[in-house]
Structures are given as structure tokens and as C-alpha cells.
Design a protein that fits this description.
By secondary structure, the chain is mostly helical. It has a domain of 33 residues. The chain is built from 3 helices and no strands. It is rod-shaped and about 75 Å long. Keywords: Membrane, Transmembrane, Transmembrane helix. It comes from Lactobacillus amylovorus subsp. animalium. This is Preprotein translocase subunit SecE.
Length: 54
């Protein structure tokens, strides 16, 4: 007969304490990188530097 606690042990939800913050930070970093390359593709920084440079 199998151990009755088998399913109790292996079906527990996985608890992450620190990886939650890593996931949030990774998502923010990925969003910033994607936005930066998108703005570069549309010439946003060229227009911004022209405005700053006069």
C-alpha cells in the first residue's frame, strides 16, 4: 500500500519568497528595454536631441 502522505507532499503549492520580487524586477526591466528600442526605432531620441540642442 502506498504512503497516504504522498499526494499531500507533492501537491503542495510551491512557495517562492524571493523569486516574486525577481519576477517583478525582470518584468520591469524587460518593459524598459522594449520601450527603449521601440522609441529608438521611431526616432524619438533624435527628435528629443534636436529639441534639446535647439
Amino acid at each position: 500500500m502506498q504512503n497516504k502522505n504522498y499526494y499531500r507532499e507533492f501537491n503542495k503549492p510551491i512557495q517562492h519568497k524571493e523569486s516574486h520580487y525577481e519576477t517583478i524586477f525582470g518584468g520591469i526591466l524587460l518593459t524598459v528595454v522594449v520601450l527603449t528600442f521601440t522609441l529608438l526605432c521611431y526616432g524619438f531620441w533624435d527628435a528629443a536631441f534636436q529639441i534639446i540642442g535647439g
